[in-house]
Specification:
about 140 residues; alpha/beta; Collagenase (Catalytic Domain); four-stranded mixed beta sheet; about 20% strand
């Protein structure tokens, strides 16, 4: 089950449910089962407070992912995404909002699938996975 909610914002510039079938494909393509995924689309400030209170990190970020199961075969989690960061990132790298939202949404799923981005090599692998799956993203 994939669900979303908007935290502290009036709206977001796309419909996440349009991306959910693609997210499910990513998970099944990695030979895992789709569990419960909850996306929270929020402001910079909302996510900043989560980052401080739950992770002890005093900085802004575009995404925070919390796994909800210890079963590696079932992908379940809560994914918090800053809409403010996504807009800024899309502008900075000169891409459209839809693609940047999709990239960040799949980034969270890749973390739940066990991919990390702490080292340079892990970052390269994560980016390659993002790029591959974005190539399979249906147009709006």
């Amino acid at each position: 089950m994939l669900k979303y909610q908007i935290e502290g914002l009036d709206s977001i510039p796309f419909k996440p449910e349009n991306i959910f079938p693609w997210i499910k494909k990513v998970i099944t393509n990695e030979n895992r089962l789709v569990g419960n995924l909850f996306y929270h689309f929020c402001s910079d400030e909302f996510l900043y407070h989560i980052n401080i209170n739950f992770l002890g990190h005093d900085f802004y970020t575009d995404i925070i992912t919390f796994p909800l199961t210890e079963n590696d075969d079932i992908i379940s989690g809560e994914i918090f995404i800053s809409v403010d960061r996504i807009r800024e990132n899309a502008s900075h790298i000169q891409t459209d909002l839809y693609s940047e939202f999709a990239r960040v949404m799949v980034h969270g799923v890749l973390h739940l699938l066990g991919y990390d981005d702490h080292t340079a090599e892990q970052k390269r692998e994560m980016r390659a996975k993002e790029d591959y799956y974005l190539s399979l993203l249906p147009l709006k």
